[in-house]
Every structure is written in structure tokens, then in C-alpha cells.
User: Which sequence fits this backbone?
């Protein structure tokens, strides 16, 4: 059986053998059975064999950030109604937590447990019960993403301020050089750009971050000019940094003023 199979009534289909997993042909209401997602017996603990497939699901959801899905847990009818409802919810939560840890925007994921209320096979047989124990991925709508806001890092007295930024995917970061000397901004060994500057003019270098991840940078000459950009699929709050323009000198008391506001996304 292929990893991703259209559930009854759905129109999505698994990719051909050897082809990557895709959700582009799916629409709201389509539901997919994730047959390669398995848990320990009577547990919400994912089996290691499930993780490589969930990594594929995570990759597809990150490449389609406006798709919102329900992660639905289902059980057979062994044990009580309440027990199976709790087990199915916990399994749906477990799958969600794994996808979020793999970089999926949590706003894309709605976990829901159905217990044994939606069987797709006869619970009177072992084969039927095995089919009923499943996780489904249902497309439930479109997620509206807020546009990323530009932000700045100020370099003064040979230090980057702030030294660490947490921003959503799509953010453009601008480095503003207030030192009286130029700096070469280097990302993990790959040269970015030299910020040439005349004294006190605040020349800039900008870079847009379109992929989630952690990006460390430094000046290739001045080791104290360094920092980190953490790029996430989404953030709960947004920190914008602004700074007064100094009219003739930089000092150790130089400050970068920050404003924190809620961020929808």
C-alpha cells in the first residue's frame, strides 16, 4: 500500500512510486489516510518507523504554507468509548507535535480525535480493526498569512544590536552600519556583503529569509560583530528595532530601541 491513500469519497491520490508527496491537487474536504503513521500499542508514542514519512508530510506542508489541515486520530472499538476518544486525541496531538518540531506552522494543524465513531472497516475482524486504527489528514481550509515585516540590526561599537532576532519566514533584515569602519557580513562561512560606510552615514545591507532555519553571521574581520537570525514558519510576537541616528560619534552607550507587538500569521 502506498504511503498516502485517498480516503473514501476523497479525490486526492498518492504520488506514483518514486515521486515526491504533493498536496497541490487536493482541495478543502479531501481526506488522506496516513497508513505509515503508527503508534505503540495503547499509546500515543510514535514508532520510529513513522517519522521519515511524517518528515515528508512536514516538507509538503512547509512548501504549501496556506494549506490548513485537520490531523484526525481513529481507533478500533476495543476498550471503552471514553478511553478510545482520549487515545485518538492524544495520537492526533502527538502527530501534530512531531510536525511542529519539524518546522510546520502550528496554525496549519488542527488535531482531532474521533475514537471508534468513524470506522472504515468491520471491527469484528482483526484486519478490519487494523484498518480502523489510523491517522487521517483532512484539508479543512486556507490559512491567511500576514505579510512579514522588515526589521533591522544596528552595528555600533563593533557589536550587532540586537545580537539575536526571531522572525517569520519572508522577513527582510537590514544591517545598518554606524561604525566608522566597514564590515564584511559572513553567513556560516558564505560571504554575504561588505557594508561600506563613511563615518556616521549608516550604510546598509539587506537580506530576505525565505526558508525556516537558524542563520549565524559574523564580520569576517571583526569577531565581535556577530549574531543569529532564527527564522520560524510563524511567530506569536514581532520585535521591531529602531535606533537614533548619531550625529557624529558612536559610543558604548549606543542603544537600539525595540517595540514588541502581537504578530498574526
Assistant:
Amino acid at each position: 500500500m502506498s504511503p498516502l491513500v485517498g480516503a473514501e469519497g476523497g479525490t486526492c491520490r498518492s504520488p506514483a512510486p518514486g515521486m515526491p508527496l504533493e498536496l497541490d491537487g487536493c482541495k478543502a474536504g479531501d481526506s488522506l489516510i496516513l497508513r505509515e503513521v503508527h503508534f505503540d500499542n495503547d499509546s500515543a508514542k510514535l514508532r520510529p518507523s513513522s517519522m521519515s514519512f511524517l518528515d515528508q508530510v512536514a516538507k509538503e506542508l512547509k512548501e504549501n504554507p496556506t494549506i490548513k489541515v485537520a490531523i484526525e486520530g481513529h481507533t478500533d472499538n476495543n476498550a471503552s468509548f471514553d478511553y478510545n476518544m482520549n487515545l485518538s486525541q492524544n495520537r492526533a496531538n502527538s502527530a501534530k507535535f512531531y510536525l511542529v518540531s519539524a518546522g510546520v506552522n502550528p496554525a496549519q494543524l488542527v488535531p482531532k480525535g474521533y475514537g471508534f465513531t468513524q470506522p472504515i472497516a468491520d471491527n469484528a475482524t482483526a484486519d478490519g480493526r487494523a484498518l480502523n486504527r489510523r491517522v487521517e489528514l483532512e484539508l479543512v481550509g486556507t490559512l491567511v498569512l500576514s505579510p512579514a515585516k522588515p526589521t533591522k540590526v544596528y552595528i555600533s561599537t563593533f557589536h550587532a544590536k540586537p545580537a539575536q532576532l526571531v522572525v517569520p519566514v519572508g522577513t527582510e533584515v537590514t544591517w545598518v552600519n554606524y561604525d566608522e569602519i566597514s564590515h564584511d557580513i559572513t553567513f556560516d562561512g558564505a560571504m554575504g556583503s561588505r557594508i561600506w560606510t563613511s563615518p556616521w552615514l549608516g550604510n546598509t545591507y539587506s537580506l530576505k529569509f525565505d526558508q525556516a532555519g537558524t542563520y549565524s553571521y559574523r564580520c569576517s574581520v571583526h569577531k565581535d560583530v556577530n549574531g543569529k537570525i532564527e527564522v520560524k514558519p510563524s511567530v506569536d510576537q514581532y520585535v521591531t528595532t529602531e535606533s537614533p541616528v548619531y550625529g557624529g560619534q558612536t559610543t558604548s552607550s549606543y542603544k537600539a530601541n525595540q517595540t514588541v507587538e502581537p504578530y498574526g500569521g
User: Anything to note?
Assistant: Residues 5-10, 248-253 have pLDDT under 50 and may be disordered. DSSP finds three helices and 16 strands in the chain.
